[in-house]
Amino acid sequence: MQSRLRVQGHPIQPMLVTFPLGLFVSATVFDLTDVVGGPAFLGEVGYWTGVAALVAAALTAVAGMVDLWDVPGDRTRRTAVAFNLVNALMAAMFLLTCLVRSQSPQHGASVPILATELVALAVGAVGVHLGARLMRQFDSGRTETGGLDALAGIRTAGRPTIR
Questions:
Q1: What is residue 146's DSSP assignment?
Q2: Dihedral of CA 36/39/44/50: which sign?
């Protein structure tokens, strides 16, 4: 299976998914710092980081939907659908926290908001597991070597193969 959206032969969606995940984790860390007594501005930084993560999640979801068209209708498709649904659930939970926080002038975090974000990150961890499973399923047909294994086949002028 080849992704329709690619950059120099690499699928875009696995690259994009790291942005919302990293931003959601960062937002939660900022909010945790705000809740435990850190400077108040960190709550607002956490809010805006969550908003940026939602934008990144929307772009990632579009790429995921485009890729879903080409997934064969077997176990791989079920895993891809579950992956996209789990990531959508995580984003929906963060959207809920952002909507609640948008009503306050400081956009600060609270214990219930932090708890919701931690549950959303736990849901996101399931998405990471499903994404890793998808990558293993997609890469099972590839014979291309990578990493240090690729160096084993390099020959230089007059020198033996590195092993």
A1: -
A2: negative
